[in-house]
Specification:
This protein is 3% helix and 47% strand. It has 331 residues and is mostly beta strands. The strands form seven sheets. The protein has a four-stranded antiparallel β-sheet with strand order 1-28-27-26, with no helix packed on it. Strands 2-3-4-5 form a four-stranded antiparallel β-sheet, with no helix packed on it. The two termini are 21 Å apart. The relative contact order is 0.15.
Length: 331
């Protein structure tokens, strides 16, 4: 059983959140499989309700954590593929319509679908290359997997078959879907520093956000749908108004390439992760002002806000997953 989480948690002012971030210590979720490596966790994702959080590691391990119970004996451990090279978990993603369904992609060429209640893999799809990114469509019926050769592969969950593949003309990095189920929009970051907006499922090009002057690595849409955040190798998080496709703020306090980016559950705050520098800087979306900082001893490459609380999960610590605010942390 997961913790009881209200789908409508109380809103916090930026002053109150700033005070809590500075005074709240993170909870450590120690995974013995990490073996003290700050790079062990390669993937991170909350379930849609926030009852559970999944981590994917460099040794083919997927671990499902209950945020109220930090010890690893309370987790579900899943193993992708066979031991050996080519089983790094590159990305994990939950079905937005079914809490127990998890997708993982590994560099052995497979997209795997898991039922975490039954603790087993229910389907494997060979996507024909090295997958490293994925996104679940908002209606929960299909997924898109990105390969390192810049091909996007759509998988239909009804028969676990490849629907179609689309070769991209530019280097394509991480993927994300917009919030709406109709029409659906796929956001694809590129090596040119742009975000391509693509109609889904017909994959027709819609628009380009010229977000960065060097490669763009990550993208997220706010829960309210009013902003898109992008992160690039220029160490900048840019915030785009979705109504006018205009950049409102460029946040420049990161010290290295922005590898992950995300919004708080109410869309009021944003932060990013990097594999350089220490600390996680939290900014207020509408004003573009930084309001708080989470101190870390190591670079936090992956950051993930909880979907209904102001908790922030992050990777990069040799001791394992860290979550600020969980297990009675007060956020």
């Amino acid at each position: 059983m997961g913790p009881s989480i209200s789908p409508h948690h109380r809103h916090l002012s930026r002053e109150r959140l700033s005070a809590l971030l500075s005074s709240t210590k993170p909870v450590t979720y120690h995974d013995p499989a990490n073996r003290g490596s700050p790079y062990a966790i390669q993937a991170l994702a909350w379930t849609p309700t926030g009852h559970l959080i999944a981590t994917g590691s460099h040794d083919r391990t997927i671990r499902i954590w209950n945020p109220d119970r930090p010890h690893h004996r309370h987790t579900t451990e899943l193993k992708a593929g066979s031991p050996g090279y080519g089983n790094v978990i590159e990305k994990v993603s939950w079905n937005p319509e079914h809490e127990s369904q998890l997708l993982s992609v590994s560099n052995d060429g497979f997209a795997r679908f898991w039922d975490v209640r039954d603790k087993k893999c229910v389907a494997e799809v060979n996507v024909g290359g090295e997958p490293f990114s994925c996104a679940w469509a908002p209606d929960g019926r299909t997924v898109v997997v990105g390969r390192k050769d810049d091909k996007l592969v759509a998988i239909d969950l009804r028969d676990m078959s490849i629907q179609e593949s689309h070769q991209q003309s530019v280097q394509t990095n991480q993927l994300a879907f917009g919030n709406a189920s109709e029409p659906m929009t796929l956001l694809a970051t590129t090596g040119e520093g742009h975000v391509r907006l693509i109609n889904y499922p017909d994959m027709k090009f819609l628009h380009t956000l010229k977000a960065h002057t060097s490669p763009c690595f990550c993208v997220a849409m706010s829960p309210r749908g009013d902003y898109v955040a992008t992160g690039g190798s220029d160490a900048i998080i840019s915030l785009w108004d979705t109504e006018y496709a205009a950049c409102h703020h460029a946040l420049g306090k990161m010290t290295g390439p922005v590898r992950s980016v995300g919004f708080s559950w109410d869309g009021s705050f944003v932060c990013g992760g990097s594999d350089e520098g220490t600390g996680i800087e939290v900014a207020h979306v509408s004003s573009g002002e930084y309001i708080g900082r989470i101190e870390t001893l190591h670079p936090a490459r992956l950051v993930e806000w909880h979907p209904s609380r102001y908790w922030i999960a992050y990777s990069g610590d040799p001791s394992g997953l860290k979550i600020v605010g969980a297990a009675g942390g007060g956020l």
